[in-house]
Amino acid sequence: MYLNLAIRNVKRQVGSYLIYFMTVSLTVALLFAVNNVIYSRELAALADRGEGAGTALKILVAAISFVVAFVLSYATSFLLKRRKREFGTYLTLGMTRRDILRLFLAETLVIYGIALGIGLLAGGFLFQGLMAVMMKLLEMEFSMSPYSLEGLLRTVALTAAIFLVASLASGIYLRRAAIYDLIHGEKKVEKRVKRPGLWFLATVAALGGMAACGIQFWRSVDISLRGGTVDSMESLLAGFILCVMLFHMGAAKSVVFLLLRRPGFCSRGANTFVLRQLSGNLSANSVMFGCLALLMSLAVAGTNFSFIQKAGQEEALHAAWPYDVMYYSDSNDRESEAELAESLIREYAGIRRKVLWRTFETGEQEFYSRTGWYEERMAPNDSFMPVSDFNALMAPLGAEPVALEGQFMIVCTSREAAEPDWSDMVWEHGGKSYTFHSCRTDYPKISYLYFYVVVPDEAVADMECVEESRAYLTEKQRFDGIGLHRELSRLLSAQAGENRQTGRRLAFEIREYHRQEENGVSAILVVGALFASAVFLLLAMAILALKTLSGLGEDKGRYEILFRLGMGEREQARALFWQTFVFFIAPFALPMALSIPVAAFGAHVMRMEGMEASAEVVWLIAGIVAGVTALLYLLYYTASYLIARRTVVRD
Q1: Predicted TM-score (pTM) above 0.90
Q2: CA end-to-end span of the chain, whole Å?
Q3: Could you read off the pLDDT of 340-352 as tens digits, one per residue?
Q4: Which one of 76, 289, 343, 558 is at 20 to 30 Å from 497 when CA atoms are compared?
Q5: Does residue 361 come out as left (phi exceeding 0), alpha (psi in the -120 to 50 range) or beta?
Q6: What contacts 170, CB < 8 A, 6 or more positions away?
């Protein structure tokens, strides 16, 4: 009996349930897609990171499901409040609260059942789309990925858990609500806001506070990138959150009331009616607007930064590892080991060019003694490289050759290492004096040392050679970097015992290995950010839509009065449009506007790191993210407006 009545009620109130149904369906689709990504063979193939990435995504999905359950419980209360007169009538006619709860649960079960089926179907297509994105980020060829039974079962279990939590919230509401409140709950008294002028000043102050937090954050990142130290930025984040909340509270409690004091504006069309409609709604929902704006801001910023990180990855890889393969070996290393390593490189990637270079030591710490972090026991010995080796190493990377006549040049691998001042230093060695030439941080990084000293060739004649290393440019741009890394690791581990006994140094760097590792991280970050952002935006839009529709009972009576006073259909539709549009745009405007400073900040960071090409892509990424967000907003707003118009506008 309850199921038949529930199906009839769902059909009769399909407009009321449309937004709720859309949200549940899209959420199920996202859950199904991400759960299939978690159990996909492609994710499992991400070497050592596959298991960790799957665990991280599982935790993310569980946390997001908890948020979804909470928000859908909140959304369920909107549906209950919209039908409270109907439920109050049922109680008056003799139905028990348990009967009404069973009826409502049957209705929501019907919705969840249909939404689960449609969501799983849509999620199948969405899963393939996510896999296409992930394969693109992994630089692998895309093919249709098989679906996972574990992913299906996990999605069904999470959906059932969300339904149970939402049902629990419904039961609590119906158990506590009085019959009088259910029948007469729509007759609310609008509370007038006190001191709207002060609230307006608070709005302006909060806007200034957000700008100040953003500027200070920008400066702190600049200082950090230049090698300086900054205080903890948690206070800036907390300040920004408080300013976002205060801004929306102040705007909701001041702007409409200040406009009502302008006779010229209020006298045009139905402006007075629209402002009166908005005054109570905006004031009562000011805290909710702040929370939703913060949620959507995090979604927009998180998605932007995940793609920005990927955009700068290639340039960052070339800056960190300028050669395709770099093999660092002790000068006492047996030639057979180096040849074996080279044969492995040739097998996996081919060798287009090989460059040899040497590193020397004197056993002294003259240069390190001028640094701020110098401790005799902890600091390494000064390291020297002959200028001929340095020029040979830098020439394939496009650097101009260096000429050193009686001079030395400091090459730093980080900005922190460039802080000491060597300009007045005269280095005495081998009966000769060498003066300071320059301190450079702009050369490609080819050493793991903090810094090394480039000197004329004759200066190293009597020094001890501690490393004879090799750099390789490979014939293949893309190869199995993980496989080569594994084989070279085995080669080195075979000599690990001997190396520990003799103190020999043996290491290597493979750019393609790091690219594949970074691609895996980027893929997980982007997929996780897309999932979280999409769910956050869906929930925010659903709350706005359901909050709008929950007040249609009151709006219907008020628009009925407008109709009787002679206002036509077009004027009513225009008034309803502005009423719903302003309500929707209130928490949405800030996250969209935030796309501009986020893009500017991302481009600035890219330029600070010397990634000019990636800096240009940042604006395109921000535009795409903002466009997709706006389309989602338009979808929910259009559905809400059409439902509201059909309900309240009289023809």
Answers
A1: no
A2: 37
A3: 888 888 999 999 9
A4: 343
A5: beta
A6: 73, 76, 77, 80, 101, 104, 105, 108
